[in-house]
DNA sequence: TAACTACATTTTGTCGACAATATGTGGCAC
DNA sequence: GTGCCACATATTGTCGACAAAATGTAGTTA
Protein backbone atom coordinates (compact mmCIF):
# COMPACT_ATOMS: atom_id res chain seq x y z
CA UNK A 1 0.00 0.00 0.00
CA UNK A 2 2.63 2.49 1.04
CA UNK A 3 4.93 3.63 -1.70
CA UNK A 4 8.55 2.69 -1.09
CA UNK A 5 10.54 5.05 1.05
CA UNK A 6 14.12 5.79 0.18
CA UNK A 7 16.89 6.76 2.55
CA UNK A 8 16.58 10.31 1.27
CA UNK A 9 12.89 10.34 2.22
CA UNK A 10 13.59 9.11 5.72
CA UNK A 11 16.47 11.50 6.21
CA UNK A 12 14.38 14.39 4.91
CA UNK A 13 11.61 13.62 7.40
CA UNK A 14 14.02 13.04 10.28
CA UNK A 15 15.89 16.25 9.60
CA UNK A 16 12.71 18.22 9.14
CA UNK A 17 11.30 16.98 12.41
CA UNK A 18 14.54 17.72 14.23
CA UNK A 19 14.34 21.28 12.98
CA UNK A 20 10.63 21.79 13.49
CA UNK A 21 10.71 20.36 17.00
CA UNK A 22 13.65 22.57 17.87
CA UNK A 23 16.27 19.87 18.35
CA UNK A 24 18.27 21.76 15.75
CA UNK A 25 18.00 25.39 16.59
CA UNK A 26 16.66 28.06 14.30
CA UNK A 27 19.29 30.04 12.45
CA UNK A 28 21.99 27.42 12.87
CA UNK A 29 24.18 26.28 10.03
CA UNK A 30 23.70 22.86 8.48
CA UNK A 31 27.01 21.23 7.67
CA UNK A 32 26.64 18.49 5.10
CA UNK A 33 29.50 16.35 6.37
CA UNK A 34 28.38 16.74 9.95
CA UNK A 35 24.81 15.73 9.15
CA UNK A 36 25.95 12.83 7.02
CA UNK A 37 27.72 11.29 10.00
CA UNK A 38 24.86 12.15 12.36
CA UNK A 39 22.23 10.44 10.22
CA UNK A 40 24.62 7.77 8.94
CA UNK A 41 24.02 8.38 5.26
CA UNK A 42 26.10 9.73 2.43
CA UNK A 43 26.37 13.41 1.66
CA UNK A 44 24.26 12.87 -1.46
CA UNK A 45 21.13 12.02 0.51
CA UNK A 46 21.82 14.84 2.96
CA UNK A 47 22.02 17.21 0.05
CA UNK A 48 18.73 15.94 -1.30
CA UNK A 49 17.12 16.34 2.11
CA UNK A 50 18.43 19.88 2.44
CA UNK A 51 17.22 20.71 -1.05
CA UNK A 52 13.74 19.60 -0.15
CA UNK A 53 13.84 21.56 3.08
CA UNK A 54 14.79 24.59 1.05
CA UNK A 55 11.71 24.10 -1.10
CA UNK A 56 9.64 24.10 2.09
CA UNK A 57 11.30 27.34 3.19
CA UNK A 58 12.57 25.63 6.31
CA UNK A 59 16.19 26.24 5.39
CA UNK A 60 17.86 28.88 3.28
CA UNK A 61 20.82 28.22 1.08
CA UNK A 62 23.57 30.22 -0.51
CA UNK A 63 25.53 28.76 -3.40
CA UNK A 64 29.00 27.57 -2.46
CA UNK A 65 28.42 28.63 1.12
CA UNK A 66 25.84 26.35 2.66
CA UNK A 67 22.44 26.07 4.25
CA UNK A 68 21.07 27.57 7.44
CA UNK A 69 17.86 26.91 9.28
CA UNK A 70 15.58 29.90 8.77
CA UNK A 71 15.49 32.46 11.55
CA UNK A 72 12.15 32.96 13.26
CA UNK A 73 10.74 36.45 13.47
CA UNK A 74 7.37 37.90 14.44
CA UNK A 75 7.16 39.34 10.95
CA UNK A 76 7.72 35.89 9.46
CA UNK A 77 4.89 34.41 11.48
CA UNK A 78 2.56 37.18 10.41
CA UNK A 79 3.41 36.58 6.76
CA UNK A 80 2.74 32.91 7.26
CA UNK A 81 -0.70 33.59 8.66
CA UNK A 82 -1.49 35.92 5.79
CA UNK A 83 -0.83 33.07 3.41
CA UNK A 84 -2.84 30.68 5.55
CA UNK A 85 -5.77 33.08 5.60
CA UNK A 86 -5.67 33.28 1.84
CA UNK A 87 -5.19 29.61 1.05
CA UNK A 88 -7.37 28.10 3.73
CA UNK A 89 -10.11 30.58 2.98
CA UNK A 90 -10.11 29.34 -0.58
CA UNK A 91 -9.94 25.76 0.68
CA UNK A 92 -13.09 26.27 2.72
CA UNK A 93 -14.79 27.87 -0.26
CA UNK A 94 -13.94 24.93 -2.46
CA UNK A 95 -14.73 22.40 0.24
CA UNK A 96 -18.25 23.78 0.46
CA UNK A 97 -18.87 22.71 -3.11
CA UNK A 98 -16.49 19.77 -3.52
CA UNK A 99 -16.83 17.73 -0.33
CA UNK A 100 -19.13 14.75 -0.57
CA UNK A 101 -22.04 14.40 1.81
CA UNK A 102 -20.20 11.56 3.51
CA UNK A 103 -17.11 13.64 4.04
CA UNK A 104 -19.19 16.43 5.52
CA UNK A 105 -20.87 13.93 7.82
CA UNK A 106 -17.47 12.73 8.99
CA UNK A 107 -16.42 16.30 9.58
CA UNK A 108 -19.52 16.91 11.67
CA UNK A 109 -18.76 13.79 13.67
CA UNK A 110 -15.23 15.02 14.30
CA UNK A 111 -16.60 18.33 15.48
CA UNK A 112 -19.02 16.52 17.79
CA UNK A 113 -16.17 14.57 19.35
CA UNK A 114 -14.36 17.84 19.91
CA UNK A 115 -17.47 19.21 21.56
CA UNK A 116 -17.55 16.27 23.94
CA UNK A 117 -13.94 16.92 24.86
CA UNK A 118 -14.50 20.59 25.47
CA UNK A 119 -17.68 19.97 27.43
CA UNK A 120 -16.00 17.14 29.33
CA UNK A 121 -14.19 19.65 31.46
CA UNK A 122 -10.50 19.93 32.11
CA UNK A 123 -9.59 18.45 28.74
CA UNK A 124 -9.14 21.56 26.63
CA UNK A 125 -9.27 21.82 22.86
CA UNK A 126 -6.13 20.04 21.76
CA UNK A 127 -3.90 21.36 19.07
CA UNK A 128 -4.04 17.98 17.32
CA UNK A 129 -7.81 18.29 17.06
CA UNK A 130 -7.54 21.74 15.56
CA UNK A 131 -5.00 20.55 13.03
CA UNK A 132 -7.17 17.56 12.16
CA UNK A 133 -10.14 19.83 11.53
CA UNK A 134 -8.20 22.08 9.20
CA UNK A 135 -6.70 19.06 7.43
CA UNK A 136 -10.10 17.71 6.48
CA UNK A 137 -11.29 20.97 5.03
CA UNK A 138 -8.10 21.42 3.06
CA UNK A 139 -8.43 17.90 1.71
CA UNK A 140 -12.08 18.62 1.02
CA UNK A 141 -11.08 21.36 -1.39
CA UNK A 142 -9.89 18.61 -3.74
CA UNK A 143 -7.33 21.07 -5.07
CA UNK A 144 -3.94 19.40 -5.45
CA UNK A 145 -1.90 22.58 -5.29
CA UNK A 146 -3.73 23.93 -2.28
CA UNK A 147 -3.30 20.66 -0.44
CA UNK A 148 0.37 20.37 -1.24
CA UNK A 149 1.24 23.96 -0.40
CA UNK A 150 -0.41 23.76 2.97
CA UNK A 151 0.57 20.26 4.05
CA UNK A 152 4.08 20.07 2.66
CA UNK A 153 5.02 23.67 3.27
CA UNK A 154 3.05 26.01 5.48
CA UNK A 155 1.94 23.63 8.18
CA UNK A 156 5.40 22.47 9.14
CA UNK A 157 6.54 26.07 9.34
CA UNK A 158 3.57 27.02 11.47
CA UNK A 159 4.31 24.14 13.80
CA UNK A 160 7.95 25.21 13.94
CA UNK A 161 6.89 28.63 15.12
CA UNK A 162 4.43 27.20 17.61
CA UNK A 163 6.91 24.82 19.14
CA UNK A 164 9.82 27.19 19.32
CA UNK A 165 7.92 30.23 20.51
CA UNK A 166 6.28 27.99 23.10
CA UNK A 167 2.64 28.43 22.23
CA UNK A 168 0.70 25.21 22.35
CA UNK A 169 -3.03 25.07 21.66
CA UNK A 170 -3.91 28.74 21.35
CA UNK A 171 -7.42 30.12 21.88
CA UNK A 172 -8.77 26.78 22.92
CA UNK A 173 -12.12 27.96 24.18
CA UNK A 174 -13.49 30.09 21.37
CA UNK A 175 -12.12 28.11 18.46
CA UNK A 176 -14.73 25.42 18.79
CA UNK A 177 -17.59 27.77 18.03
CA UNK A 178 -15.79 29.08 14.98
CA UNK A 179 -15.27 25.56 13.72
CA UNK A 180 -18.92 24.82 14.26
CA UNK A 181 -20.02 27.76 12.14
CA UNK A 182 -17.64 26.81 9.37
CA UNK A 183 -19.02 23.28 9.26
CA UNK A 184 -22.51 24.69 9.21
CA UNK A 185 -21.66 26.84 6.20
CA UNK A 186 -20.18 23.86 4.40
CA UNK A 187 -23.24 21.80 5.28
CA UNK A 188 -25.36 24.52 3.68
CA UNK A 189 -23.06 24.46 0.66
CA UNK A 190 -22.51 28.18 1.20
CA UNK A 191 -19.07 28.63 -0.33
CA UNK A 192 -18.97 32.38 0.15
CA UNK A 193 -19.72 32.19 3.85
CA UNK A 194 -17.41 29.24 4.43
CA UNK A 195 -14.52 31.20 3.03
CA UNK A 196 -15.32 34.29 5.02
CA UNK A 197 -15.66 32.38 8.27
CA UNK A 198 -12.45 30.47 7.72
CA UNK A 199 -10.59 33.67 6.99
CA UNK A 200 -11.91 35.27 10.13
CA UNK A 201 -11.03 32.17 12.11
CA UNK A 202 -7.41 32.34 10.98
CA UNK A 203 -7.29 36.10 11.39
CA UNK A 204 -8.37 35.71 15.01
CA UNK A 205 -5.65 33.12 15.50
CA UNK A 206 -3.12 35.55 14.11
CA UNK A 207 -4.32 38.35 16.35
CA UNK A 208 -4.22 36.10 19.38
CA UNK A 209 -0.67 35.10 18.58
CA UNK A 210 0.40 38.69 17.99
CA UNK A 211 -0.97 39.55 21.40
CA UNK A 212 1.03 36.79 23.03
CA UNK A 213 4.21 37.91 21.31
CA UNK A 214 3.98 41.52 22.36
CA UNK B 1 26.29 41.63 -7.45
CA UNK B 2 24.77 38.49 -8.85
CA UNK B 3 25.02 35.47 -6.67
CA UNK B 4 27.08 32.68 -8.18
CA UNK B 5 25.25 30.18 -10.31
CA UNK B 6 26.08 26.52 -10.15
CA UNK B 7 25.75 23.96 -12.90
CA UNK B 8 22.71 22.60 -11.11
CA UNK B 9 21.09 26.04 -11.23
CA UNK B 10 21.70 26.41 -14.94
CA UNK B 11 20.52 22.90 -15.68
CA UNK B 12 17.40 23.43 -13.59
CA UNK B 13 16.53 26.57 -15.48
CA UNK B 14 17.33 25.07 -18.87
CA UNK B 15 15.31 21.95 -18.17
CA UNK B 16 12.42 23.95 -16.76
CA UNK B 17 12.30 26.19 -19.80
CA UNK B 18 12.48 23.24 -22.15
CA UNK B 19 9.46 21.76 -20.41
CA UNK B 20 7.49 24.98 -20.03
CA UNK B 21 8.06 25.97 -23.64
CA UNK B 22 6.99 22.54 -24.79
CA UNK B 23 10.30 21.35 -26.20
CA UNK B 24 9.92 18.42 -23.84
CA UNK B 25 6.36 17.29 -24.10
CA UNK B 26 3.93 17.09 -21.21
CA UNK B 27 3.54 13.65 -19.72
CA UNK B 28 6.84 12.34 -21.08
CA UNK B 29 9.30 10.43 -18.97
CA UNK B 30 12.52 12.06 -17.84
CA UNK B 31 15.42 9.62 -18.00
CA UNK B 32 18.30 10.72 -15.82
CA UNK B 33 21.02 9.19 -17.97
CA UNK B 34 19.49 10.54 -21.14
CA UNK B 35 19.22 14.06 -19.74
CA UNK B 36 22.72 13.93 -18.32
CA UNK B 37 24.13 13.37 -21.81
CA UNK B 38 21.79 15.94 -23.34
CA UNK B 39 22.80 18.71 -20.94
CA UNK B 40 26.38 17.46 -20.60
CA UNK B 41 26.39 17.22 -16.84
CA UNK B 42 26.54 14.39 -14.37
CA UNK B 43 23.50 12.55 -13.15
CA UNK B 44 23.85 14.24 -9.77
CA UNK B 45 23.03 17.67 -11.12
CA UNK B 46 20.22 16.24 -13.23
CA UNK B 47 18.78 14.68 -10.13
CA UNK B 48 18.98 17.99 -8.30
CA UNK B 49 17.27 19.76 -11.18
CA UNK B 50 14.52 17.16 -11.28
CA UNK B 51 14.06 17.43 -7.53
CA UNK B 52 13.55 21.15 -7.82
CA UNK B 53 11.13 20.71 -10.68
CA UNK B 54 9.20 18.32 -8.50
CA UNK B 55 8.94 20.99 -5.83
CA UNK B 56 7.47 23.31 -8.47
CA UNK B 57 4.94 20.62 -9.43
CA UNK B 58 6.30 20.65 -12.95
CA UNK B 59 7.31 17.01 -12.76
CA UNK B 60 6.01 14.11 -10.72
CA UNK B 61 8.22 11.44 -9.33
CA UNK B 62 7.79 7.91 -8.09
CA UNK B 63 10.46 6.33 -5.94
CA UNK B 64 12.62 3.81 -7.78
CA UNK B 65 10.67 4.42 -10.95
CA UNK B 66 11.44 7.89 -12.19
CA UNK B 67 10.07 11.27 -13.03
CA UNK B 68 7.51 12.35 -15.62
CA UNK B 69 6.50 15.78 -16.79
CA UNK B 70 3.06 16.52 -15.39
CA UNK B 71 0.13 15.93 -17.68
CA UNK B 72 -1.95 18.96 -18.57
CA UNK B 73 -5.66 18.81 -17.97
CA UNK B 74 -8.45 21.38 -17.98
CA UNK B 75 -9.08 20.48 -14.35
CA UNK B 76 -5.43 21.18 -13.51
CA UNK B 77 -5.60 24.63 -15.08
CA UNK B 78 -8.75 25.44 -13.14
CA UNK B 79 -7.12 24.40 -9.88
CA UNK B 80 -4.17 26.60 -10.73
CA UNK B 81 -6.39 29.59 -11.26
CA UNK B 82 -8.17 28.95 -8.00
CA UNK B 83 -4.84 29.19 -6.22
CA UNK B 84 -3.93 32.28 -8.20
CA UNK B 85 -7.20 33.94 -7.28
CA UNK B 86 -6.55 33.24 -3.64
CA UNK B 87 -2.89 34.23 -3.50
CA UNK B 88 -2.94 37.20 -5.84
CA UNK B 89 -6.04 38.51 -4.18
CA UNK B 90 -4.16 38.53 -0.90
CA UNK B 91 -1.15 40.03 -2.66
CA UNK B 92 -3.27 42.94 -3.89
CA UNK B 93 -4.69 43.40 -0.42
CA UNK B 94 -1.24 43.54 1.12
CA UNK B 95 0.15 45.67 -1.68
CA UNK B 96 -2.48 48.30 -0.93
CA UNK B 97 -0.97 48.81 2.49
CA UNK B 98 2.66 47.81 1.95
CA UNK B 99 3.67 49.42 -1.33
CA UNK B 100 5.53 52.69 -1.04
CA UNK B 101 4.23 55.78 -2.76
CA UNK B 102 7.11 55.55 -5.19
CA UNK B 103 6.29 51.97 -6.08
CA UNK B 104 2.68 52.88 -6.67
CA UNK B 105 3.79 55.77 -8.87
CA UNK B 106 5.91 53.36 -10.91
CA UNK B 107 2.96 51.01 -11.21
CA UNK B 108 0.80 53.84 -12.47
CA UNK B 109 3.45 54.73 -15.01
CA UNK B 110 3.57 51.13 -16.20
CA UNK B 111 -0.19 51.17 -16.58
CA UNK B 112 0.02 54.40 -18.55
CA UNK B 113 2.54 52.87 -20.94
CA UNK B 114 0.16 49.96 -21.43
CA UNK B 115 -2.60 52.40 -22.16
CA UNK B 116 -0.50 54.01 -24.86
CA UNK B 117 0.11 50.63 -26.41
CA UNK B 118 -3.55 49.70 -26.36
CA UNK B 119 -4.62 53.08 -27.66
CA UNK B 120 -1.88 52.98 -30.30
CA UNK B 121 -4.02 50.66 -32.34
CA UNK B 122 -3.16 47.23 -33.65
CA UNK B 123 -0.65 46.58 -30.89
CA UNK B 124 -2.75 44.59 -28.47
CA UNK B 125 -2.17 44.11 -24.78
CA UNK B 126 0.87 41.88 -24.65
CA UNK B 127 1.15 38.95 -22.33
CA UNK B 128 4.51 40.25 -21.10
CA UNK B 129 2.86 43.47 -20.00
CA UNK B 130 0.20 41.61 -18.11
CA UNK B 131 2.77 39.46 -16.39
CA UNK B 132 4.80 42.53 -15.47
CA UNK B 133 1.76 44.17 -13.93
CA UNK B 134 1.00 41.18 -11.78
CA UNK B 135 4.66 40.83 -10.81
CA UNK B 136 4.77 44.31 -9.37
CA UNK B 137 1.71 43.84 -7.24
CA UNK B 138 2.93 40.50 -5.96
CA UNK B 139 6.27 42.07 -5.08
CA UNK B 140 4.39 44.95 -3.53
CA UNK B 141 2.81 42.58 -1.02
CA UNK B 142 6.26 42.32 0.59
CA UNK B 143 5.30 38.82 1.68
CA UNK B 144 8.17 36.42 1.07
CA UNK B 145 6.05 33.28 0.94
CA UNK B 146 3.50 34.78 -1.39
CA UNK B 147 6.20 36.01 -3.73
CA UNK B 148 8.03 32.72 -3.78
CA UNK B 149 4.94 30.56 -4.27
CA UNK B 150 3.78 32.62 -7.22
CA UNK B 151 7.08 33.33 -8.94
CA UNK B 152 8.88 30.06 -8.38
CA UNK B 153 5.86 27.82 -8.67
CA UNK B 154 2.53 28.91 -10.05
CA UNK B 155 3.67 31.28 -12.77
CA UNK B 156 5.82 28.77 -14.60
CA UNK B 157 2.98 26.30 -14.53
CA UNK B 158 0.53 28.87 -15.82
CA UNK B 159 2.90 29.73 -18.62
CA UNK B 160 3.30 26.03 -19.39
CA UNK B 161 -0.43 25.74 -19.84
CA UNK B 162 -0.60 28.89 -21.91
CA UNK B 163 2.14 27.85 -24.26
CA UNK B 164 1.07 24.28 -24.71
CA UNK B 165 -2.64 24.91 -25.03
CA UNK B 166 -1.81 27.67 -27.48
CA UNK B 167 -3.41 30.63 -25.79
CA UNK B 168 -1.27 33.71 -25.90
CA UNK B 169 -2.43 37.02 -24.44
CA UNK B 170 -6.02 36.26 -23.50
CA UNK B 171 -8.68 38.92 -23.08
CA UNK B 172 -6.41 41.63 -24.24
CA UNK B 173 -9.02 44.35 -24.60
CA UNK B 174 -10.85 44.30 -21.31
CA UNK B 175 -7.92 43.47 -19.05
CA UNK B 176 -6.57 47.01 -19.20
CA UNK B 177 -9.60 48.50 -17.49
CA UNK B 178 -9.44 45.92 -14.76
CA UNK B 179 -5.81 46.72 -14.15
CA UNK B 180 -6.64 50.40 -13.98
CA UNK B 181 -9.25 49.88 -11.29
CA UNK B 182 -6.89 47.73 -9.26
CA UNK B 183 -4.23 50.40 -9.35
CA UNK B 184 -6.81 52.98 -8.35
CA UNK B 185 -7.78 50.91 -5.32
CA UNK B 186 -4.15 50.55 -4.32
CA UNK B 187 -3.64 54.26 -4.81
CA UNK B 188 -6.54 54.84 -2.42
CA UNK B 189 -4.98 52.35 0.01
CA UNK B 190 -8.22 50.42 -0.12
CA UNK B 191 -7.00 46.91 0.67
CA UNK B 192 -10.43 45.35 0.74
CA UNK B 193 -11.34 46.61 -2.72
CA UNK B 194 -7.95 45.86 -4.19
CA UNK B 195 -8.30 42.23 -3.18
CA UNK B 196 -11.81 41.95 -4.49
CA UNK B 197 -10.92 43.51 -7.84
CA UNK B 198 -7.86 41.32 -8.26
CA UNK B 199 -9.89 38.23 -7.51
CA UNK B 200 -12.49 39.22 -10.04
CA UNK B 201 -9.78 39.95 -12.57
CA UNK B 202 -8.33 36.48 -12.23
CA UNK B 203 -11.75 34.87 -12.11
CA UNK B 204 -12.58 36.50 -15.45
CA UNK B 205 -9.33 35.21 -16.86
CA UNK B 206 -10.25 31.73 -15.73
CA UNK B 207 -13.70 31.96 -17.23
CA UNK B 208 -12.29 33.22 -20.49
CA UNK B 209 -9.88 30.32 -20.63
CA UNK B 210 -12.56 27.82 -19.79
CA UNK B 211 -14.60 29.17 -22.66
CA UNK B 212 -11.72 28.74 -25.06
CA UNK B 213 -11.15 25.18 -23.93
CA UNK B 214 -14.72 24.05 -24.41
C1' DT C 1 47.52 49.19 14.38
C1' DA C 2 45.09 48.60 10.05
C1' DA C 3 44.74 46.77 5.74
C1' DC C 4 46.07 44.01 2.12
C1' DT C 5 47.97 39.64 0.08
C1' DA C 6 49.08 34.91 -0.27
C1' DC C 7 48.44 30.58 1.41
C1' DA C 8 46.15 26.73 4.00
C1' DT C 9 41.96 24.80 5.39
C1' DT C 10 37.34 23.77 5.20
C1' DT C 11 33.02 23.28 2.82
C1' DT C 12 30.29 22.81 -1.06
C1' DG C 13 29.75 21.23 -6.01
C1' DT C 14 30.43 17.62 -9.37
C1' DC C 15 31.63 13.25 -11.00
C1' DG C 16 31.87 8.17 -12.04
C1' DA C 17 31.05 3.62 -10.04
C1' DC C 18 28.45 0.33 -7.51
C1' DA C 19 24.07 -1.39 -5.19
C1' DA C 20 19.13 -1.87 -5.06
C1' DT C 21 14.87 -1.79 -7.25
C1' DA C 22 11.67 -2.01 -11.07
C1' DT C 23 10.69 -3.30 -15.80
C1' DG C 24 10.77 -6.29 -19.83
C1' DT C 25 11.44 -10.99 -21.89
C1' DG C 26 11.28 -15.77 -22.45
C1' DG C 27 9.89 -20.20 -21.12
C1' DC C 28 6.93 -23.38 -18.72
C1' DA C 29 2.65 -25.31 -16.88
C1' DC C 30 -2.17 -25.73 -17.51
C1' DG D 1 -3.83 -19.04 -25.55
C1' DT D 2 -3.43 -17.47 -20.71
C1' DG D 3 -1.23 -16.99 -16.56
C1' DC D 4 2.77 -17.35 -13.81
C1' DC D 5 7.67 -17.67 -12.58
C1' DA D 6 12.69 -16.86 -13.29
C1' DC D 7 16.04 -14.32 -15.28
C1' DA D 8 18.18 -10.48 -17.97
C1' DT D 9 18.09 -5.65 -18.58
C1' DA D 10 17.64 -1.01 -17.58
C1' DT D 11 16.83 2.69 -14.33
C1' DT D 12 17.07 4.82 -10.05
C1' DG D 13 19.33 5.23 -5.34
C1' DT D 14 23.54 5.61 -2.75
C1' DC D 15 28.28 6.06 -2.05
C1' DG D 16 33.19 7.73 -1.83
C1' DA D 17 36.55 10.60 -4.20
C1' DC D 18 38.00 14.61 -6.56
C1' DA D 19 37.40 19.63 -8.13
C1' DA D 20 36.08 24.29 -7.18
C1' DA D 21 34.92 27.83 -4.24
C1' DA D 22 34.77 30.35 0.09
C1' DT D 23 36.53 31.13 4.61
C1' DG D 24 40.17 31.62 8.00
C1' DT D 25 45.08 32.62 9.10
C1' DA D 26 49.58 34.28 8.95
C1' DG D 27 52.69 37.43 7.31
C1' DT D 28 53.99 41.76 5.29
C1' DT D 29 53.75 46.67 4.49
C1' DA D 30 52.44 51.26 5.21
TrEMBL record, chains A, B:
**Domain HTH gntR-type residue range list:** 5-72
Question: Does DNA-binding appear among the keywords?
Answer: yes
UniProt keyword Transcription, yes or no: yes
Per UniProt, which keywords does this protein have?
A: DNA-binding, Transcription, Transcription regulation
Q: Which domain of life is it from?
A: Bacteria
| One protein family per Pfam | GntR
| UniProt-recorded name of the protein | GntR family transcriptional regulator
Q: Whose protein is this, by species?
A: Shewanella inventionis
Amino acid sequence: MNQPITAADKTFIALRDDIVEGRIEAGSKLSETELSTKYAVSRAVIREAINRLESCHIVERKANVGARVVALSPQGLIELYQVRESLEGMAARLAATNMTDDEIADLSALLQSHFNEVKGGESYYQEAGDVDFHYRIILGSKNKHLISMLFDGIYHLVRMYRVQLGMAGPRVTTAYDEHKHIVQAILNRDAELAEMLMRRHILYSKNSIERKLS
